[in-house]
Amino acid sequence: MLVDSPGIFLESGGIETVLPPVIGHRGAAAYAPENTLAGLRRAKALGCRWVEFDVRLTADNQPVLLHDDRLERTTNGHGRVSGLQLAAVRRCDAGNWFHSSFAGERVPTLEEALMLLAELGLGANVELKAVPGREAATGAAVAELLARIWPGNPTHLLISSFQRAALAAARDRAPHISRGILFRRIPKNWRNIAAQLGCVTIHADQQRLRPAVLSEIRRAGYPLLAYTVNDPERAKALFDFGVKSVFSDVPDRLHGATARGGFHREIVADSGSAAIPR
Ligand code: G3P
Ligand code: MG
Prior knowledge:
By secondary structure, the protein is of the alpha/beta class. The protein has helices spanning 15-18, 37-45, 86-90, 110-120, 135-149, 164-173, 190-197, 211-220, 232-240, 251-254, and strands spanning 2-5, 8-11, 22-25, 50-57, 63-65, 123-128, 157-161, 178-183, 201-205, 224-227, 245-248.
């Protein structure tokens, strides 16, 4: 879809028309072990239309859902995923650390997760995580798999990353899949970075968002997605300031949150130093 904004036409691929206000973070991380099939199912049960999850490569280049390179925090395994074969990663239990009722959950392959998303009718923000030196390989492998087997409407799919080399590789391998650039604090040259990588969405840490840059992003026609928001009042404030979507561990608590006043109020650029008020 073409978005008319001062001075530019942004090809945003229609994604802003399908992005929901609340996206389940790592599935629904407060209710089920993060980045597991159980987490994706829980997000659906909690009313999510989209989920976010993290994907990285095993030593044999298989994309799996896991936030950390190390296994210890979210499984009963040890070591680095990037140094282990898929078969070894699959032997780990990825649910029992969270609660015994989730014992037996495995680290999902990306392919398994995509099949489940199709069954559940969920859209996905696939976040690329790569160890240093493996950024391009990760972006290429994940984009190639998504291009080959994503069973749903491609509009309901978004690849994001903090790692620009991973996004560049995804762009080269599957240019038709929408991309979003992740920032902690949004840099002044955000627009150049997004343009170079062909990104259609901007993702940022909600704690470090500044009204002036948010206003600039909105005027340029890019949807802004903010992570991680678990407080409904905070979600309302962010929607007021024009944030399109928030990632949440507790998506059910935020479903009722909308912009106060029912529409996004205009943001007046400030000195750029003040954060969005809490
Ligand atoms: O994609 C939003 C958010 O998940 C980015 O940070 O560390 O939770 O993957 P992280
Ligand atoms: Mg993530």
